[in-house]
Amino acid sequence: MAGGWSRDGAVQDQISASVEDAVKLARSRLPGGEGLTHCQECEAVIPDARRKAIPGVRLCVRCQSELEEQQTIVSSFNRRGSKDSQLK
To answer: DSSP of 11-42, one letter per residue?
Structure first.
């Protein structure tokens, strides 16, 4: 049940669109191609188990964790439904 001027199901549509955007972003960050035997950042050896689990891996666990921390974007509201984002 949506309120105000929105139609029924509009809230769920916004949630679904946000989830789809997050999935697209996550997929775009997946490595592709042939993986490396050594980390491209610190040159540490990447274990065989990690290379088999993640095809195309290019970073060791430590460097990957640091990269993911830097890429984390915290959003406290849905930009699609935010009046502030429409006013700018």
So the answer is: HHHHHHHHHHHHHHHHHHTS--SS--SB-TTT
